[in-house]
C-alpha cells in the first residue's frame, strides 16, 4: 500500500485511495482541495481498519502497524469463526474413529454372521429330523387289526404262532398273541437286521402275578417277491421301546 505521500484516507469509510483521486472509490466521498495533500492528522474512523500514518491494512487482532509501528487506539473487532456444519462435523467424527473401534465392529459383524449360520444349520437339522420321523411313521399299516390281518395272510406266520404260543390260557385273559407298537416312532414298525418289521410277542407262559414269558416274531413290512420275511429275534434283541397295542388268540 504504500507511501503516505502518494495515498490518502477517506475520512468516512477509511478506504485508502491514490493522492490524485477526487472521490473515494468505496463510498463516493468527494475529497476537498485540502485533502489533496497528505493529512496524517485526519481522525481515523472507528474501528481502525487501516494505519492512519501509512495506510497499511491492519491485520486482525494487531495492536501495532506492521509497517510503521503505529499504535492503534481502537481494538479491531474479532471476526467470529463460523461453526463447522453438521455434515463436516460428522465427517470429522468419522475420520477420528479409532482403528481399534472399526476392527471391533468388523469382528461383531463376523460374530453375527456366524450366529445366523448356526441358527440356519440348526433349523435345517430340525426339519430333517421331523421329516425323517414322519417318514418312519408313514411306514407300515396304521391300526393293530390291519397289521394282524396282514400277518395272518402268511401261513408260515400263523403256523409259527400256533406252535409257539401257549395253549394254557386264562379264562379271564385268554389272549396269547400280543402285537407291539413302537413308542419312539408311534407306529407298528421296528428295525431288525436292517429291515422294517412288525413285532409280535408269542406268550409261552403266564405267571400268577401277571407277568409272562414270550418269544418275539418279526414279520417284514414289505414282501420279497410276494413272500413274507419272517424271523425270530434272539432274547438279546432290544424291544424296550415296544408297548402292547393289541391282544389276540391263536
Which structural class fits the helix and strand makeup?
alpha+beta
Rounded to an integer, what's the Rg over CA atoms?
55 Å
Q: Percent helix among the residues?
A: 25-40%
* Oligomeric composition of the shown chains: single chain
Mean pLDDT: 80
How many strands in all? 8
What percentage of the residues does DSSP assign to strands (E)?
Answer: 15-25%
What are the segments in which pLDDT stays under 50 over at least 5 consecutive residues?
Answer: none
- Biggest sheet, open or closed, and with what strands and sense? 6 strands, antiparallel
- Termini separation comes to 131 Å
Work out the count of structural domains.
Answer: 2
In N-to-C order, the SSE pattern is EEHHHHEEEEEE
Shape summary: rod-shaped
Helices, by number, come to 4
What can you see in these coordinates?
It contains 4 helices and 8 strands, in the order E-E-H-H-H-H-E-E-E-E-E-E. The protein has helices spanning 86-95, 99-138, 144-151, 155-164, and strands at 7-9, 16-18, 177-182, 190-192, 195-206, 212-220, 230-231, 242-248. Strands 3, 4, 5, 6, 7 and 8 form a 6-stranded antiparallel β-sheet that branches. The chain has a two-stranded antiparallel sheet with strand order 1-2. It folds into 2 domains: 1-78, no CATH class; 144-248, no CATH class. By secondary structure, it is of the alpha+beta class.
Which tags fit this structure?
single chain, 250 residues, alpha+beta, two-stranded antiparallel ribbon, 4 helices, 8 strands, 18% strand
Brief sketch in words of this structure:
With about 250 residues, this protein is an alpha+beta fold. The chain has 4 helices and 8 strands.
Amino acid at each position: 500500500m504504500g507511501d503516505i505521500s502518494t495515498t490518502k484516507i477517506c475520512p468516512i469509510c477509511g478506504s485508502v485511495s491514490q493522492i490524485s483521486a477526487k472521490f473515494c472509490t468505496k463510498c463516493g466521498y468527494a475529497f476537498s482541495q485540502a485533502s489533496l495533500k497528505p493529512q496524517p492528522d485526519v481522525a481515523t474512523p472507528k474501528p481502525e481498519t487501516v494505519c492512519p500514518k501509512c495506510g497499511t491494512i491492519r491485520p486482525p487482532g494487531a495492536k501495532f502497524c506492521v509497517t510503521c509501528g503505529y499504535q492503534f487506539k481502537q481494538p479491531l473487532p474479532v471476526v467470529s469463526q463460523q461453526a463447522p456444519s453438521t455434515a463436516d462435523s460428522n465427517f470429522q467424527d468419522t475420520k477420528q474413529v479409532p482403528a481399534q473401534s472399526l476392527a471391533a465392529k468388523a469382528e461383531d459383524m463376523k460374530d453375527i454372521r456366524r450366529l445366523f449360520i448356526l441358527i440356519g444349520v440348526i433349523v435345517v437339522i430340525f426339519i430333517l429330523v421331523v421329516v425323517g420321523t414322519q417318514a418312519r411313521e408313514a411306514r407300515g399299516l396304521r391300526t393293530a387289526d390291519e397289521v394282524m390281518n396282514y400277518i395272518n395272510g402268511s401261513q408260515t406266520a400263523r403256523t409259527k404262532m400256533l406252535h409257539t404260543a401257549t395253549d394254557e390260557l386264562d379264562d379271564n385273559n385268554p389272549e396269547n398273541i400280543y402285537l407291539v407298537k413302537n413308542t419312539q416312532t408311534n407306529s407298528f414298525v421296528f428295525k431288525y437286521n436292517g429291515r422294517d418289521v412288525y413285532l409280535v410277542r408269542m406268550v409261552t407262559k403266564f405267571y400268577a402275578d401277571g407277568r409272562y414269558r414270550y418269544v418275539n416274531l418279526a414279520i417284514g413290512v414289505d414282501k420279497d417277491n410276494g413272500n413274507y420275511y419272517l424271523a425270530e429275534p434272539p432274547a438279546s434283541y432290544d424291544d424296550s421301546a415296544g408297548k402292547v397295542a393289541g391282544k389276540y388268540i391263536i
